[in-house]
Amino acid sequence: MSAPLLEVRNLSRRFDVSKPWLNRVIERTDKVYLKAVDNVSFSINKGETLALVGESGSGKSTIARLIVGLLDPSEGEILFEGKSLSAGLQGAEARRLRRKFQMIFQDPFASLNARWRVSDIIAEPLKVFERGLSSLDRRRRVGELLELVGMSAEDGIKFPHQFSGGQRQRIAIARALASKPEFIVCDEPTSALDVSVQAQILNLMKDLQNEFGLTYLFISHDLSVVRHMANRIGVLYLGRLAEVAESKTLFLQPKHPYTRMLLDAVPDLEMTGRKRKRVEGEIPNPIDPPSGCAFHPRCPFIFDRCKAEIPALLENGISQTACHAVEERRI
Amino acid sequence: MSAQDNLTAPTAAPVAPKPPSRLYRIWDSDVFYSFRRSPVTIVAAIVTVTMLLAALFAPWIAPYNPFNPASLNLMDGFTPPMTESMMGNFFVLGSDHQGRDVLSTILYGSRVSIFVGLSATLFAMTLGVSLGLAAGYLGGTTDSVIMRIADIQLSFPAILIALLIFGVARGIIPPSRQESMAIYVLIVAIGLSNWAQFARTVRGATMVERQKDYVSAARIMGVHPLAILIRHVLPNVTGPVLVIGTIGLALAIIEEATLSFLGVGVPPTQPSLGTLIRIGQQFLFSGEWWILLFPAITLVMLALAVNLLGDWLRDALNPRLR
Amino acid sequence: MTEPVLSVRNLTVEFPTRRGTLTAIDNISFDIAPGEVLGVVGESGAGKSMTSAAVIGLIEPPGRIAGGEIKLNGKRIDNLSEKETRKIRGKKIGVIFQDPLTSLNPLYRVSQQLIETIRTHLPLSEADARKRAISLLDEVGIPAAARRIDDYPHQFSGGMRQRVVIALALCAEPDLVIADEPTTALDVSVQAQIIEVMKKLCAERGAAIMLITHDMGVIAETADRVAVMYAGRIAEIGPVRDVIKDAKHPYTSGLMGSIPSLTSDLERLVQIPGSMPRLSAIPKGCAFNPRCPQVFDRCRVERPDPLDVGDRKVACWLYDDRKEQAA
């Protein structure tokens, strides 16, 4: 197997959520940190789709923003083609690497500048990365990109508000493809869309992946979408990876108790009448997470070790899990 | 089925009509719809435009040149409105103590007032928008420093700050050049006393826009922060700037009038509306009311009309009130 | 057959705008039987929330009910005064919104809000109302209800807040509960709990539920019957199992096919081309005709009324016996 396209090693990100300095001094409180991402490691091979699923507070969007460089990691490093992105990249090298990864955002209403014409929006990466391009060539490329995502070249002269949510997401995809990237981070790309439009966008993303050999990091809270899109899936809970498995394995043989619970919570659309366990409790406050394994207050398989020790992500034969019970073969 | 099946989106009307002309689109836009629906705004716009044009073309439409000493005759002094003077000159709005036609002085005076008001507002806008963008986008210490200065300034009346700046400038500029520089000093003084409103609003809007994903997308591409600010953020914060700019224009005109009334504004050789009011008030109790009344009415109408336009703009651009 | 709790006949809701009148709800009819859960499903712009707003008398002006009637327990409620509507809204109809914070006043303790609502509609003393409120909170699954009742809404988590809203909606023993996207703002694991609580409590009290959601999964879990809405009309209405397993209307089958499955492997999802028309540009004939894979001439000219197909109604010319003659 070749080296992974993207590798994330022991990535952590803390956010300072303390009160202002003066309040802290008067109230005699310490600084408060929220650990949004805690010691997360994974890798993505070329051409595959890795999905990160999790509920609110799981840190999935933070990981996306760390990878594309919108946030700086507190600890750990991110390697793209074996080169570390964290070490302040400069000039041509930075531009060479940057054009290889792009991002698609959740809200197609906020991700397009409302004051720009669609053609200018899509041409922006071309202006940054292909400075030699003549204006005619650029217009031609914009037209091709629009056709590629199922729109017409004439749509370029319109403004984003003249399009529906699904069409805007297509425009956002066209912009992401403009710099001919290899790797696209998709942060909940369809959760703001209706199901029938979601199907269009998911199909489009799969087509583009097959056509251009794209690699996706797919962030979502929707298990059925994730199952449809991903080769491998990482399940996040309160900033830590609970389980990483091949897509099929995860759904057929979920190992981690949280994964099992999550799967049980998904509504049974096929109406198979499958037996399901009741879901217990709610996600704890991430500012003050439980000791040891963060899932232990909701876990049906809890034992002493879970409260004391943070479980590491270990190989269990068919997948990787961060669970003491799985490690000791209790479940 | 493939993704390309969606070329024909049924959201559009079945038969594409001929695209309407640009002029028609502006006329048909929501902003202009609310304009057409508000008689008060239409009147305010007519008053404003008339006054702007009158000021602009003052040398051509004014019946007399009130600042040409050769054409002045003290014998024309204190002629009441709509009467002919002893010298046989007719004054629609009367004449002042020096025999100057009040209508003509008003036309020339509003020229000065509007020029100072517009320049000062543009100056304040440029300064405030730049600082607001910087504060909102960079955050941290830059933000704290800029906004604390703005807070301090906002806690004093603008007129006081303008007076202060005016005084300092007087001390720096040599007396021989004071007269010719006065109008620019006035513009800077009024401008500097009004920038904080712009900065505050733009900072807030910038902080909202900065969080949006179109800015993130540009950052991922490595677009320079300055380019992001000017090309992405600035166009999205212009709405509120336009509103404050319009209301600020009315304020600047009044502020100029106040300063001139206090005698620290434009030199008497280039009287503005404020100067005219100062001159006029000396004669109010001796019965020559017209010398004060007409410039005052002009100032009130101008400020009110511009202010009403600003109010309308604020409502029209606010999507929640639409 | 027993009399339905809610009976909507030929309801039409219009929005006059300066560019002409938009029809948000176009001539829809449905019933909800006592104790029944009716799911109303549709994509954004389908008019599902407008339908619930019409029933509870909360249509934002300038929108108005332009035709048809709404009957609650056989009595018309669409033409009542604002005051009478408000009385019905608390007593006979309980309402659960997507965002719990729109139903709860952040300035008052949960206890104050519950007790006030109970006492407005039921002749109980302060102490009895409080007892009732605590037992309700207990029933919706709030741990240590007696202690937490005096907390403010912001002291509860999202899921717990939605439980409080359910308690608030149920406290006057309504005949009908309208739940508008009650779980959309919640995480999957919490969503399952909320659905369970809502369903259980309404069943115990015999209250009917009108459940509005865009999520077919929630409908499958909860509803007895489902109405699928498209462009302000009901495309298909019938028993939930029939509609999900064997959709008759081409829109419903397209919608079902576009949901990624948890069990089967498909390389591509079924996709309906295009998107829901805007209210200002609803096509002539059947509103779905430009996107329909089975469209024929009649669909482009004549609007289909709901036709009986087994024990459901489908608004599609495919199921009209005169299809051949017409086509």
UniProtKB/TrEMBL annotation, chain A:
Domain of life: Bacteria
Any GO BP: transmembrane transport
Domain ABC transporter residue range list: 6-263
CC terms in the record's Gene Ontology section: plasma membrane
Listed transmembrane segments: none
Pfam families in alphabetical order: ABC_tran, oligo_HPY
Cell compartment(s), UniProt: Cell inner membrane
MF GO annotations: ATP binding; ATP hydrolysis activity
Gene3D superfamilies the UniProt entry points to: P-loop containing nucleotide triphosphate hydrolases (3.40.50.300)
This protein's UniProt keywords: ATP-binding, Nucleotide-binding, Transport
Membrane topology: Peripheral membrane protein
Annotated NCBIfam families: oligo_HPY
Family affiliation: Belongs to the ABC transporter superfamily.
Protein name per the record: ATP-binding cassette domain-containing protein
Automatic annotation (TrEMBL), chain B:
GO CC list: plasma membrane
Signal peptide: none
Domain ABC transmembrane type-1, residue spans: 110-310
Keyword Lipid biosynthesis: no
Annotated keywords: Cell membrane, Membrane, Transmembrane, Transmembrane helix, Transport
InterPro entries named in the record: BP-dependent_transpt_permease, MetI-like, MetI-like_sf, OppC_N
Keyword Cell membrane: yes
Compartments in which it is found: Cell membrane
Residues that span the membrane, as ranges: 42-62, 112-138, 150-169, 181-202, 233-254, 289-313
Similarity-based family: Belongs to the binding-protein-dependent transport system permease family.
PANTHER family xref list: ABC TRANSPORTER PERMEASE PROTEIN, OLIGOPEPTIDE TRANSPORT SYSTEM PERMEASE PROTEIN APPC
UniProt name for this protein: ABC transporter permease
Native source species: Neoaquamicrobium microcysteis
Automatic annotation (TrEMBL), chain C:
Entry superkingdom: Bacteria
GO annotation, biological process: peptide transport; transmembrane transport
Record domain ABC transporter: where: 6-256
CDD domains, sorted: ABC_NikE_OppD_transporters
Name of a matching Pfam family: ABC_tran
InterPro entries: AAA+_ATPase (IPR003593), ABC_Ni/Peptide_Import (IPR050388), ABC_transporter-like_ATP-bd (IPR003439), ABC_transporter-like_CS (IPR017871), Oligopep_ABC_C (IPR013563), P-loop_NTPase (IPR027417)
Membrane topology qualifier: Peripheral membrane protein
SMART domains, per the entry: AAA
Alphabetized GO MF terms: ATP binding; ATP hydrolysis activity
GO cellular component: plasma membrane
rRNA-binding keyword on record: no
Subcellular location(s) per record: Cell inner membrane
Keyword Nucleotide-binding in annotation: yes
The entry's keywords: ATP-binding, Cell membrane, Membrane, Nucleotide-binding, Transport
Listed Gene3D superfamilies: P-loop containing nucleotide triphosphate hydrolases (3.40.50.300)
Similarity comment: family membership: Belongs to the ABC transporter superfamily.
Listed name of the protein: ABC transporter ATP-binding protein
Organism the protein comes from: Neoaquamicrobium microcysteis
